[in-house]
Amino acid sequence: MNAKPTQAATPWGLAVLICANTFVEGAGLLSGEFDLRHEPWIPVRLLTGRSVRLGLRQVFKQAHEIEDLELPVPPAAAGLMRILAAITARVAADGDDRLDDLDVAENTNDWLDLRRRVLRAGQFDPDAVDRYFDKDVPPGRFDLFDLKRPFLQDPQLRSECVDTEGKPNPSGVNKLVMGRPTGINGAVLFGHFTDTAPVPVPAAEATWHLIAQLYFGPSGQCTPRRITEDRTGSGDAAPLRKTVSYFPWGRDLFTSLILAVPRPQGEELGENADVCPWEGELLPPLRPLPEMTWPGRMLTGRFRHAVLLVPSSDGQQVTDAYITWSTHAPAPVVRDPYQILDRRKDGNFQPREADGARALWRDLDSLLLKDDRQDTQRPPALGSLPRTLLPTLRVRAYGFDQDGQQKDSVWFASTTPRVLTWLEENDEEMAHHIKRCHASAEAVGDRLDFAARVAWKIATDSNIDPSPKAKIKLDARKPGPWASAALTRFWPKAETDFWQLAKPERRTDHPLEPFVHAALSALDEAIGPSSRADIRVARARHRARSMLHALLSPKTG
Fold it and tell me: Exposed e or buried b for every residue in 361-387, given b needs 16+ CB within 10 A?
C-alpha cells in the first residue's frame, strides 16, 4: 500500500513515523475564543493540488472540492473522521430525509437508496451545513476555549483536578501532545521538551492532540480527579487504543465522508435520542453511561478520558492541559464500523491491533472477503458500498502501534490503490486470489523465519549435527540475527511480488514461487556473501535454502 506522505515520501506498505512538532513559544492564563467552525485548523489538499487549512464549516461546504485530508497525526485523523462522519449524518439529506433518520434506517434498502440520492447531489447543501452549525448545536459548543462547554472538554476539571491543598493540578501540555516526553525520565523522541520548561502548542495543533487523546489515550495512572472524598487517579484505555481503522476513500472528501457514515445495524437503533458530546449535556462521571445509539454516540460517545485545555491570553495557543478519567462505568459493547475483528483463542473477537512493522497490504484479503469466514470479520464500513463507485474507491488506513497502557511506538497512515472493485460480492474470484497471494506470502515468511534461525544455530553451535536430515532444537531466547535481517529484506520484496500478482490477468497464477524466490534472496543477503563463508556457514545456508525450496514440492506446496 502507498504510505500517505506527510513529511517525507516513503515506499509502499511501510509504516510512516510522523510527529507534529512545530510549536511556537508563548504563554498566558486567560481564555480566548477559538471557534472551530471558522478557525483554519484542518489541513486539506484541494483537487487543484493546493494545500490549505479550513474550519469545520468550510470543510463541509467545500468537501466536493477537497481531494484529501492532510492531518499529520494519524491517530487524530482516525478520530476526526469519526467526528466528521457523525456530522455528515446530520447534514447529508435528500429533501426531508437525513442519513441519521431512524425511520429511514429501519429499512436497510431505504437507507442505501437515500445514500445513493445524497451521493448523486455531489456536494453538501450549504444551507443544511449552516443550519447545523448555527442553529442545531447550542452556541459555544465548537469553541475550543468556551468557559462553559469547550469543544470535547470538561470545564469541571478546573475545580476537580486539584492537589491536597485545593490548588490546580494540571497534567502539563507535554502530556497532551503525543510524541512529547513526560515526567522526569521521559525519553526525548521528537524534540527537546521538558516538564520544567514546557513549550506551548498552537491551538489548531492542540485540537489534533485533544482528539488523539480521546480516541487513543492510555490506561493506568493519570492526573487525580477529586469528585467524592476519594481522589481517584486511574483510568481506562481510550476506545481505539492500539488499533488500526480502515475507511473507504473516494475521489473527493464529499464521497469519502458519505461512505464513512456507517450503515445502520438493528442492534444500534436505540430508542433514546442520538447525541454527540457537543450536542448534549455533560455526562455525570459517576453515573452509568447511556445506551449506545446510531450513529453519533457510537462514533463519538465512547470516550474514557476527560480533557481541559488551558489557553494563552490571545486564544491562539495552549499552555497547559488537564487530562484525567471521564468514567469508570463498564465500556459499552459496540461494533466499530472501521475495524477488522480477529477471533481470539477464547472464541471472542477483538479489533486487529496496529503493528508498525507490518505492511498494510497484508490486511487486504481481510478487507475484501465477506464475514462468512470463521476467524476474521471485515469492517462494516466496507460492506454495501455503491457498485458504481467500486472501481474508483481505495482504502485509507490510520493506525497507532501502542501497548495497552502507556507505551506509544509508531503511528502510520496508508492508502491502497483502487482495490475495492475486488470485494468478494463484486468479484469473488479476484478476492480469493488476493487471499491466496497473502496466505502464500505469510507461509513463506514463517518458513524463512524458521529456516534462518536453524541456519544460525548450525553456523554457531559446534555441537549441532549439520547433516541435512538432522533435527535441530532451537532456543527461542537466542534466535540470532539472521532471521530478523532476512524478514526485514523479505517483506518489501514480497510486497512488490504481491502487487505484480494482484492483477486480474494473473488471477489463475500459483503465487507461491515468486515469494520463495524473494525469501531465498533475502536469506542470502542476511547471511552474507557465500565466497566469505566458512564450511559451517555454507552448510547452514544450504540447509536453510533447502527448507525454503521444500515449499515448492507437490507435497508441501
Answer: bbbbbbbbbeeeeeebbbbbbbeebbe
535-549 helix and 512-527 helix, angle to the nearest 10 degrees: 170
What CA–CA distance (Å, rounded) separates 216 from 75? 7
3-state secondary structure of 323: strand
The residues pairing with 97 across neighbouring beta strands, listed in sequence order, are: 94
CB-based contacts of 86, cutoff 8 Å, min separation 6? 276, 295, 296, 299, 300
Phi, psi of 520 (to 5 degrees): -60, -45
Coil, helix or strand at residue 522:
helix
Q: State pTM to two decimals.
A: 0.89
Distance from chain centroid for Cα 504: 29
- Examine residue 239 and say whether the peptide bond preceding it is cis (omega within 30 degrees of 0): no
pLDDT for 64: 98
Q: HSE on the CB side for 484, CA within 13 Å?
A: 5
CA–CA distances in Å: residue 19 to residues 22, 407, 411: 9, 15, 9
Q: Contact, 483 vs 453, CB < 8 A?
A: yes
Regions in the chain scoring below 70 on pLDDT: 1-32, 181-197, 229-231, 266-270, 372-373, 531-533, 555-557
Cell numbers at 192, concatenated: 527537546
SS (H, E, C) 458-499: HHHCCCCCCCCCCCCCCCCCCCCCHHHHHHHHHHHHHHHHHH
What's the CA gap between 60 and 12, in Å, rounded?
Answer: 30
Chain segment 449-491, per-residue pLDDT in tens: 999 999 999 998 877 777 777 788 888 888 899 999 999 999 9
Helix (H, G, I), strand (E, B) or coil at 194: strand
Phi first, then psi: give them for residue 51, nearest 5 degrees: -100, 130
Which residue is it, cell 553456523? 459
Are 56 and 87 contacting, i.e. CB atoms less than 8 angstroms apart?
A: yes
Per-residue cell: 435? 487471499
Left, alpha or beta for 294 (phi > 0: left; psi -120 to 50: alpha)?
beta
Average pLDDT, the chain: 88
Query: Do 204 and 145 touch, CB atoms closer than 8 A?
Result: no
CA-CA-CA-CA torsion sign (152, 398, 242, 177): negative
What value does the CA radius of gyration of the chain take, rounded to a whole number of Å?
Answer: 26
CA triplet 469, 475, 479: central angle to 5 degrees?
95
